[in-house]
Amino acid sequence: MAYRKTDKVAARLADTRRGILDAARDLVSEGGFAAVQMTEVAKKAGVATGTLYRYFSSKEALCRQVFREVSAREMGMLAEIASGEEAASERLVKVLRTFAGRAVRGRRLSYALLAEPLDVNLAEERSFFRRTHAEIFAGLLEDGIDNGEFPEIDVRIAAACIAGAIPTALIGPLAPESHELDNNPDRVVEEIVKFCLGGAGIALAAGKSNTRERRTTA
Amino acid sequence: MAYRKTDKVAARLADTRRGILDAARDLVSEGGFAAVQMTEVAKKAGVATGTLYRYFSSKEALCRQVFREVSAREMGMLAEIASGEEAASERLVKVLRTFAGRAVRGRRLSYALLAEPLDVNLAEERSFFRRTHAEIFAGLLEDGIDNGEFPEIDVRIAAACIAGAIPTALIGPLAPESHELDNNPDRVVEEIVKFCLGGAGIALAAGKSNTRERRTTA
DNA sequence: CATGCTGGTGAACCATGGTTCATTCCTTGT
DNA sequence: ACAAGGAATGAACCATGGTTCACCAGCATG
């Protein structure tokens, strides 16, 4: 025996892996998953194409991992807000604002996660992502219904509507011209939030600090 | 000169063209645009692959045409309702119901039109389709606002929300289990319509007869 | 029916882009 | 230093599927 993986090597391997994932993620946020080509990833990561296959069994596996990492961050953020202690309406508004606000600010990446045409393997991953979103919305709605803040509605359907309305209005083909989004993203976000609340039967409830462009951190 | 197209030939050509389009449309409604392969289209239409190129300059051109024909029918239907004489709220409800109802019944085809991952060329076509939808919604909302039926809102954003909410709730990855859609599509449609109206700030106007709802847990 | 065309054919062609693998480069333990 | 691996390489390979093109078939004219 003349070789055993040492810590230093393990670290280097981990670095390379990270580098590959980062390169792929960068490509996604520049040009969507369509721009992820193995040769490009390799070039960007500074390795040979063959090397990619020492770390990921296929392009699909690599893309899945990228999708997961990126979407996990988004979902974690929303889940945290949703699990807070405030009133359901308060949390709901915050979640909607955060979701919409982040989407409008990181449009390219959000587009990739939410709307970009991609093939079935990745669509699966997206499906999970969206479902989780919807579950967060549904949970909040249910909370609000349980304690009488909201009227009774079918939370699953309402949640699906919300999960569809936001991306479409913000980053889909129907999104307002981008210059408007750039000039006054907060107004657009508020308008969308209002729509979603109204749809859920919440009459601009808890009209808290809804006054002026209050921005949720991006 | 020894040849000029005669009527009989012209008719045959038109038939072949139709046959090709029909074959392609059938493939779409079976397996989406992803299932449209030139060899398959040719087989189904009973012609050789080369023949396809005598009628359409490329696969893209063929798919565009199919997309247009199918979507034109849908849009025409909605546009007709929207241009009626009734109150705006009445027309809006009808349009929403028609849109949602048709989508839930012809789910495969609607999915292809509204949500299937497809490449950029066709996405353009879809973009037009969706935009037209949104314009119909926006027009109705505006009508209602102008004559005081509805509150003042940003009709463009609301329209985009509607256009996103319906497909997502019905046929996207967030759609309720299909058995529920199959069992009680009307209930689901009504729930979605309710959401959209609420989002637009319309308090269940012109409510047809939809008193009993039940909350289903996620 | 001969001629001149157009319509039709489908196997070959080609572009794209993911994947492989023989080879080379490094790292480790003796 | 050197042998014995593992790690990295990247050009070749291959699969997919759209497109072409040399050739054949059939219809319209004189």
What would the keywords be for this entry?
homodimer, 218 residues, mainly alpha, 10 helices, 0% strand, elongated, disordered C terminus, DNA-binding
Question: How would you explain this protein's 3D organization?
Answer:
Two copies of one chain form a homodimer. The first copy, chain A, has 218 residues and is mainly α. Helices cover 71% and strands 0% of the residues of chain A. Chain A has ten helices and no strands. Chain A has helices spanning 7-31, 38-45, 49-55, 59-82, 88-105, 107-114, 120-146, 155-170, 178-183, 185-199. In chain A, helix 1 packs across helix 6. Chain A starts with 6 loop residues before the first helix and ends in a 19-residue tail after the last helix. At the A-B interface, helix 7, helix 8 and helix 10 of A face helix 7, helix 8 and helix 10 of B.
Radius of gyration of chain A: 20 Å
How would a crystallographer describe the biggest sheet of chain A?
Answer: none
Query: What does the oligomeric state look like here?
Result: homodimer
**Cα separation of the termini of chain A:** 53 Å
Please state the average pLDDT score of chain A. Answer: 87
Largest interface: A-B, 48 and 47 residues
Structural class of chain A: mainly alpha
Order of helices and strands of chain A: HHHHHHHHHH
Summarize the amount of helix of chain A as a percent range.
over 70%
Overall geometry of chain A comes to elongated
Tally the beta strands of chain A.
Answer: 0
Poorly predicted sequence stretches spanning 5 or more consecutive residues of chain A: 205-218
Summed up, the helix count of chain A is 10
Proportion of residues in β-strands of chain A: under 5%
